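Appendix B: complex inputs.
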Amino acid sequence: MRFTPFLFISPFFVLFLLTGLFPMLYTAWVSLHDWDLIRGQGDFVGLANFQFVLGTDSFYKALRNTFSIFLLSSVPQVIAAILIAYVLDANLRAKTFWRMGVLVPFVVAPVAVSLIFAKIFADSSGIVNGVLTAIDLPAVGWHSDALASHVAIATMVNFRWTGYNALIFLAAMQAVPREIYEAAIIDGTGRMKRFWHVTVPMLRPTIVFVVITSTIGGLQIFDEPRMFDTGGQGGASRQWMTLTMYLYELGWGPQVAFGRASAVAWLLFLIILAFGILNFLITRRIANAGGPAKSSR
Amino acid sequence: MQSTAAIEQFAGKGAARAAARRRLKGGGGADARPHWWNYVLLGVVLVISFFPLYYALLLASSDAGSIARNPLPSLLPQGNLLANMREVIASDINFWSAMLNSVFVATVTSLSVVFFATLAGYAFSKLRFRGRRALLVFVIATMAVPVQLGVIPLFIIMAKLGWVGDLKAVIIPGLVTAFGVFWMTQYLEDALPFELIEAARMDGCSLMRTYWHVALPAARGAGAMLFLFTFVGSWTNFFWPFIILRGDSLTLPVALQQLQASYFKDYSLIMSGVVISVIPLLLLFLLAGRQLVQGIMQGAVKG
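Resulting structure:
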């Protein structure tokens, strides 16, 4: 009896120990060694792998690309999701139909999404460039131009996640006490003002939640940029190579340098951690600033 | 939302709907009575959600020649879909076994996650033991650890075990997830009354039997949602399977990647592969999409 509860929770902890915690610490160990896929463990090299990685152009390119894609996907996505939630938050006919409709892209694998959008954004035979040239605008180099490729990749992420996040915001909107709206209506507040001064402030904790989860996911992005072209290297001058793609290339590419790849893994972890702490501090500030965000969370 | 759900429990669906209508009409929520533009905007969102999938179907039912002439070969599907799908399945990538592997991996992983997460959730929410609070916080904290951090040692371990290219290497790390444990703990806290457990214990049930006969049935609703989430997650998972799977034992996303690499000029075949990989989940979504919507919305309010 006394040990049964521990027995019940043990599967998670045992598995996490073996496939989460141990590999995480082992990564640190590997990152301090000259280690490759074929020969295995080599000499202890201290921080040389970190030095090497931090001395390459590729690392900074990957860092820039990751952040650029992340910003292009998270900011418009949160805005669009709130607007869609707002439109869904009404006494609609066939509610379930609309809610399920916006969620459909979520069940499509990122790899499949990327294959479809790689064709939509193809440089010479894609739909988007077809439309652009048809209305006498210049075609965009979706694969050659760095920023354009980031926009295309961010579009794939947005396609898959906007509806999902809209449902999260919808749930938060429905949890707003209707009395607050009533009071605002009685005060003669218009629709737009109600949205800005009642709905959005009440959503603040949810916005923070969505931003944090999309930060953790977004900084690890791999599938979409990996599949954006056939080569999977992130373009001729690595214009859309992300940090995780760099990790993969170091570890399983021609270099087979597990030590260096591990260094990237730890740097990525530290970046995500730093972002998490930053998020936390900002959230605390917002919460302390008072207002409705102070609620239950 | 939740109060309406309570009304539904006690007085049936009709009463709940009437109450919801009354509440919205009287109060005027964010936007109580929908305008025509609510429907127009949602229609636009739906078109954007479906167009890429429809486009994949158009390309999959076309042929390389027409696609090369025009990025949008036609507005209605052509007749080549089945032939293209057959060609993909007959190709040396072995799409058919990738499909079976995906079904197998997703089913085993989801069942296992529901079983172990409910077990842990039951302990965390209803049993008293030392360090309960701290351990639960630890579980939640692990959700922030990126997968990437562990892939290299995980690969080294799998190589030592001889599991490179083996489905076991994908299944085993996913057998129980922090998200699942957290989700079931949250749910069972409300859904499973202490009295029920005590009654079962009085009748002489062991804790394990109490779990099997009381906790597991009470967790059915949340368990179904967790099953769906895990299934979708497993079905769409790419990074780790891409690293570890080889040869004949691929899952669908990895098979799609190989298809792209080998047929990179023939979009009708690549898109046929995409269509094959998407159909099973769309069917599942038709059957259980409502639960998925509910799961996301409930998780949001509680989380």
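The CA atoms of residues 213 and 261 of chain B lie 50 Å apart.
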